[in-house]
Amino acid sequence: RVDSIAHPSASLGACDLMPRKFIVGGNWKCNPKTIKEANQLLKEWKKSLSMVDKSQVEVVISPPALWMFSLRESLEALGMSVSAQNVSKTGAGAFTGEWTAEN
Fold first, then answer.
1. Residue 6 and residue 44: Cα distance in Å, rounded?
2. By C-alpha distance, which of 98, 101, 63 is closest to 83?
3. HSE (side-chain half, CA atoms, 13 Å) at 5
4. Which one of 22, 58, 63, 71 has the fewest CB atoms closer than 10 angstroms to its CB?
5. Reported pTM
């Protein structure tokens, strides 16, 4: 089922509807801990991503910034987008949207 939203330019009398695409994002923070583990995770995802209807869902992954360029091509080959996250001024821990410079 595709949800619809009213087009912003629609008049009050006639609402044009456009399909809505869902976005699922994954912020890796400090997990996986190594680039080797990250590449292994991508291999595992490749096995199950055939079940995802990419016309209905956009998948966005935020790996640690140091790995963005190394992983970008592999993530895009799987049909995922890549985004960045900022650096925490603290060590490892549960800090939403941040990774530690200690790794």
1. 38
2. 63
3. 6
4. 22
5. 0.65
